[in-house]
């Protein structure tokens, strides 16, 4: 009889401990969900995603995946949004919005394909053929080009001549006035 009471007490204690652990997980999930809601309201969708993902670790509810999908969609991350919506439908196959979410996933996948950069062409194993094809050497910066400095020097000479001629030809010249001042006449 004592053994039976001991077993019942152990089972009850285990059940209580499981309930308390479950309550802690739920409380943590609620905290992260609340933080995610604040980020979402402030249009900080990247931070909201992180909080929703953390909440999902503590309590894997389908609504978290839906909210993650919505955030990715607002960030124009089409593939990630579609993936999150698919997880949502995987966890709630009888969702009331099943048809509209499937349609949304299709639209998001199309957007992802349309916005994806084109795939690069694989390198050809054939040598290039053509007339006058030569490999170009990498271009040197402009200030390291000899012709650049030659042009700068030529421009300085031209500007100097222009200024000198302008000053020299612009002053009226009276030779008698200069002669008289120099020799005191």
Q: What report would you give on this structure?
A:
By secondary structure, the chain is mainly alpha-helical. It folds into 2 domains: 10-115, Serine Threonine Protein Phosphatase 5, Tetratricopeptide repeat, CATH 1.25.40.10; 142-183. The chain contains 7 helices and no strands. The protein has helices at 2-41, 45-58, 62-74, 78-91, 98-115, 146-170, 175-183. The chain starts with a helix and ends with a helix. The relative contact order is 0.05.
Number of domains: 2
- Number of helical segments with 4 or more residues: 7
* Strands, total number: 0
What series of H and E elements makes up the topology? Answer: HHHHHHH
**C-alpha geometry:** elongated
Quote the distance from N terminus to C terminus: 147 Å
Q: Which fold name fills CATH's third level, the topology of the largest domain? A: Serine Threonine Protein Phosphatase 5, Tetratricopeptide repeat
CATH-derived architecture of the largest domain: Alpha Horseshoe
Write down the oligomeric state: single chain
Stretches with pLDDT under 50, minimum 5 residues: 8-13
């Amino acid at each position: 009889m004592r053994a039976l009471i001991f077993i019942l007490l152990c089972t009850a204690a285990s059940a209580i401990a499981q309930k308390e652990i479950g309550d802690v997980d739920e409380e943590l999930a609620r905290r992260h969900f609340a933080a995610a809601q604040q980020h979402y309201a402030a249009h900080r969708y990247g931070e909201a995603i992180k909080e929703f993902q953390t909440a999902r670790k503590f309590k894997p509810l389908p609504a978290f995946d839906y909210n993650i999908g919505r955030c990715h969609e607002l960030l124009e991350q089409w593939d990630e949004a579609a993936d999150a919506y698919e997880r949502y439908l995987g966890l709630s196959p009888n969702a009331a919005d099943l048809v509209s979410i499937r349609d949304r996933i299709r639209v998001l996948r199309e957007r992802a394909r349309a916005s994806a950069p084109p795939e690069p062409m694989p390198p050809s194993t054939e040598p290039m053929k053509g007339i006058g094809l030569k490999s170009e050497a990498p271009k040197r910066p402009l200030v390291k080009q000899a012709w650049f400095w030659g042009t700068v020097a030529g421009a300085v000479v031209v500007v100097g001549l222009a200024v000198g001629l302008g000053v020299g030809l612009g002053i009226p010249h009276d030779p008698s006035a200069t002669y008289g001042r120099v020799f005191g006449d």
